[in-house]
Design a protein that fits this description.
single chain; alpha/beta; 9 helices; 23% strand; 3-stranded mixed β-sheet; 6-stranded mixed β-sheet
């Protein structure tokens, strides 16, 4: 059978929702690879990240967006713009919530979702944290807020309901040839995943506001036959943060670098030589020029 006379479906499926409801965990389950970093801290995802699922007769192009939040500084304004841009170009929208959060947390954003003409699947995540009665109350509330959405209870962490989501998406996608090569997993370059993995380790290892003041830039990515040589700069906003990142006798930075190197070796499937440096870039989160430099423009 040639490709031309096969019925093929393809489309863009965008994942939105408030911070910390499990969007990145869900996308990793749906794509089958660790594309988005998933940690237990809010605001982990700062960019829209594209992950691609290919079967013989279908291509789903997923975007995982930053959590919707009321912006307090320029970086957060940029993150909200990424989420709102996800409403503009979706063939199917996945709105992720969970059984814990207040459904009325972001009514402005919900108003925009309510007016969308494309199918909306409302995924109620973390159902393992409640009972049937509690789940029924959550579903009823969401049915009132988004009456046109199709509600699916799931547990992304336990892979409960994710197969049903893929089946439903396939039914809703338009007939279309693929948008990307069938062997492509993501539209992001390798350097992007290096910086995300290093940032993930910083999120896990440091407390309080430190991770949210950090950006990682990959200065060198040189792939050889048996090894990848990587040089990365960790940018912080203040000298005091630089001291915390490096730690006593460099111990903290060494630990983060070791954990990142191990994760990168798993991700790329080959040996990694990783050098990390820490530099101060005062006020980068509030500088449009610096945000553009780090790739925070939702174009």
């Amino acid at each position: 059978m040639t490709f031309n006379n096969m019925q093929h479906k393809a489309g863009f499926v965008n994942i939105v929702g408030n911070p910390n409801v499990g969007k990145s965990t869900l996308m990793n389950q749906l794509v089958g690879e660790r594309i988005s970093i998933a940690t237990f801290k809010a605001q982990t995802t700062r960019h829209r990240i594209m992950g691609i699922v290919n079967t013989e007769d279908m291509q789903i192009v997923f975007s995982d967006t930053p959590g919707v939040l009321k912006p307090n500084y320029k970086l957060q304004e940029s993150m909200l713009a990424f989420s709102e841009s996800a409403l503009a170009d979706a063939d199917v929208l996945l709105y992720v919530t969970d059984v814990v959060e207040n459904p009325e947390k972001n009514l402005d954003f919900l108003d925009k979702v309510r007016t969308m003409k494309v199918p909306v699947l409302l995924l109620v995540n973390k159902i393992d944290l409640t009972d049937q009665k509690g789940l029924n109350l959550v579903v009823e509330k969401w049915h009132t807020l988004l009456p046109n959405a199709e509600i699916l209870p799931i547990s992304a962490l336990n892979k409960f309901g994710t197969d049903l989501i893929l089946k439903r998406i396939k039914e809703l996608l338009p007939d279309s040839p693929p948008f990307f090569d069938k062997d492509q997993l993501t539209d992001k370059p390798a350097r992007f995943f290096v910086s995300e993995i290093i940032r993930e380790k910083i999120l896990l290892y440091y407390d309080k506001e430190i991770p949210y003041s950090v950006e990682v830039a990959v200065e060198q990515f040189k792939e050889e036959e048996n090894i990848i040589r990587i040089s990365a700069v960790i940018y912080v906003e203040r000298d005091s943060q630089k001291g915390i990142i490096i730690g006593h006798r460099g111990y903290a930075l060494k630990k983060v670098s070791t954990e990142a190197r191990k994760a990168l070796e798993r991700f790329f499937g080959k040996s990694i030589f990783l050098e990390t440096f820490v530099k101060v870039d005062k006020g980068w989160r509030s500088s449009q020029k610096e945000l553009d430099h780090f790739g925070y423009n939702p174009e």
